[in-house]
Amino acid sequence: MSEAVVSTRIRLARNLREYPFPIRLNAEQAKEVVDKVGEALKDVDMKFHRIDLSSVSESLQAAMIERHLISPDFLSGKEGRAVYLSDDNSVSIMVNEEDHIRLQVIKDGFELDEAYALADKIDNILSKKLNFAFHKRLGYLTQCPTNLGTGMRASVMLHLPALEMSGTVYRIGANLSKLGLTMRGLYGEGSKPAGAFFQLSNQVTLGISEKAAIENLRNITTQLIAQEMRARDGILNKIEVEDRIWRALGVLKTARMMNSAEAMKLLSLVRLGVSSKKLETLSTDSIDKLIVEIQPASMLTRYGDDMTAHERDVKRAEIIRERFQ
Question: Which terminus of the chain faces fewer neighbouring Cβ atoms within 10 Å, N or C?
Answer without folding.
Answer: C
